[in-house]
């Protein structure tokens, strides 16, 4: 098999799952042309019904296509000549886009006998194969998020690619961790232009030096040798050769005197996370890390402390994506909160840790009633159109959200609301999402320069010695 050279103008054949995943994919191929096979339109038509995110995406694609066709009605033969995608000027710059074509006739079956053309994927593959034969001046590329279809395309000699536009990073290892280890000679190289002062019980430093250019606002700094831990509060002249950073010493939540709702941090990263969770100036916090690192426990403890003790928030709202690990158990009876209960096992487990464990049954029951009054479990399906005022919102299992779903949730926040997103990119259960395209990866990368957001990657498990050993061994 001879692989085509990727040069010059290209013709992309789009699979259905690309448009279902991202309706704006039509406008993401710049000056190159796009062809949509007829079977893709059939599959879009079959998937337009319902209230799911996929169904909404399909309906949006249909609206885009209808707008393009209505604009092109005055052209002589839009189906043959193609419709300039840039005609939808409110979407993108019209000068930067190619044309969109639709399949208007059947192509001779060019697939091997082992690939029956009655299947939708094979029909799309056959269209790409036929176009490759007719278009010697263009590289025909099949774009699909279906790995098996891309494998079949390579077997029959059709160039194929994944849809890369929703990819945040090339490698998840490049993801912002939220903390930075200072070298041993840091104070020798940065102490010349340093100011320090105390204000309302907090210690601040103003530092200028070469390492400041590598920092982000609300990034945690530490130096193990001197047990120095601080957070970057502001960076002046960030684009210059010698920026100045304002840093503040952090509270050590590993100390029993600084416990939050009865718990203390067990490691450095947990202490960093509690500093950001307890900071009223940080409206958006993301916690990423493996199972057992304490993400849910820290977020709940900080929420209860600030809602009940400090009266900073009126209510705690907990939600998560309802994606099953195994087989679906079917419809669940009851109210919205009762239907969400099976998905909130992690919440209930952590509430047991945060509740009294003595033998006073009346006290335990009273505490549980109090917590249920403050904590409300809500479904993601009913978030559109809502505005949350003075709420502490916890979004669990955020790695299963797409970037669009994440945007929908975060934009629900009203004045005085804090949003905490938690997830583990190594445990993604949603189809077509990967570590580099997950919603939590998207927001961590996009929010890392905003002064009212913070992120911490938790690395050390604190569940039990059995769980830690199993995570490493298995």
TrEMBL record:
PIN domain ranges (all copies): 10-151
Matching Pfam families: PhoH (PF02562), PIN_4 (PF13638)
Signal sequence coordinates: none
Gene3D superfamilies: 5'-nuclease, P-loop containing nucleotide triphosphate hydrolases
Keywords assigned by UniProt, alphabetized: ATP-binding, Nucleotide-binding
GO CC annotation: cytosol
A GO MF term: ATP binding
Record flagged with keyword Translocase: no
Keyword field contains DNA repair: no
CDD domains the UniProt entry points to: PIN_VapC_PhoHL-ATPase
InterPro entries: P-loop_NTPase, PhoH, PhoH2-like, PIN_dom
Family (UniProt): Belongs to the PhoH family.
Name of the protein described by the UniProt record: PhoH family protein
Annotated organism of origin: Kangiella geojedonensis
């Amino acid at each position: 098999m001879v692989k085509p050279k990727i040069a010059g103008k290209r013709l992309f054949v789009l699979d259905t799952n690309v448009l279902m995943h991202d309706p704006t994919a039509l406008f993401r191929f710049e000056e190159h042309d796009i062809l949509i096979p007829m079977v893709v339109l059939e599959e879009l038509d079959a998937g337009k019904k319902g209230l799911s995110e996929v169904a909404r995406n399909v309906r949006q694609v249909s609206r885009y296509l209808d707008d393009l066709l209505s604009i092109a009605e005055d052209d002589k033969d839009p189906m043959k000549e193609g419709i300039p995608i840039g005609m939808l000027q409110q979407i993108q710059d019209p000068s930067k886009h190619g044309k969109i074509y639709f399949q208007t006739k059947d192509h001779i079956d060019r697939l091997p006998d082992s690939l029956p053309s009655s299947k939708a994927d094979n029909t799309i593959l056959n269209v790409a194969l036929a176009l490759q034969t007719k278009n010697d001046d263009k590289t025909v590329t099949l774009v699909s998020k279906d790995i098996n279809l891309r494998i079949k395309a390579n077997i029959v000699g059709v160039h194929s690619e994944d849809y890369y536009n929703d990819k945040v990073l090339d490698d998840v290892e490049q993801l912002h961790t939220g903390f930075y280890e200072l070298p041993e000679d840091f104070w020798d190289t940065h102490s010349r232009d340093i100011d320090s002062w105390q204000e309302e019980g907090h210690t601040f430093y103003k530092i200028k030096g070469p390492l400041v250019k590598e920092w982000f606002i609300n990034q945690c700094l530490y130096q193990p040798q001197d047990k120095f831990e601080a957070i970057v509060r502001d960076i002046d002249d960030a684009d210059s050769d010698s920026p100045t950073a304002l840093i503040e010493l952090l509270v050590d939540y590993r100390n029993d005197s600084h416990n939050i709702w009865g718990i203390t941090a067990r490691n450095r990263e947990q202490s960093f996370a509690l500093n950001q969770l307890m900071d009223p100036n940080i409206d958006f916090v993301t916690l990423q890390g493996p199972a057992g690192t304490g993400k849910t426990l820290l977020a709940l403890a900080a929420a209860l402390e600030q809602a009940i003790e400090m009266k900073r928030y009126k209510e705690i709202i907990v939600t998560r994506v309802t994606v099953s690990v195994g087989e679906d158990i079917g419809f669940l009876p009851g109210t919205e909160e009762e239907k969400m209960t099976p998905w909130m096992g992690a919440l209930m487990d952590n509430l047991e840790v945060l509740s009294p464990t003595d033998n006073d049954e009346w006290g335990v029951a009273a505490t549980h009633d109090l917590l249920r009054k403050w904590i409300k479990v809500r479904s993601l399906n009913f978030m559109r159109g809502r505005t949350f005022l003075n709420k502490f919102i916890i979004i669990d299992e955020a790695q299963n959200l797409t970037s669009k779903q994440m945007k929908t949730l975060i934009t629900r926040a009203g004045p005085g609301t804090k949003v905490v997103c938690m997830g583990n990119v190594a445990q993604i259960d949603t189809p077509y999402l990967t570590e580099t395209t997950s919603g939590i990866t998207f927001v961590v990368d996009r929010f890392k320069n905003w002064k009212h957001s913070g992120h911490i990657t938790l690395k050390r498990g604190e569940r039990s010695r059995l769980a830690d050993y199993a995570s490493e061994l298995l």
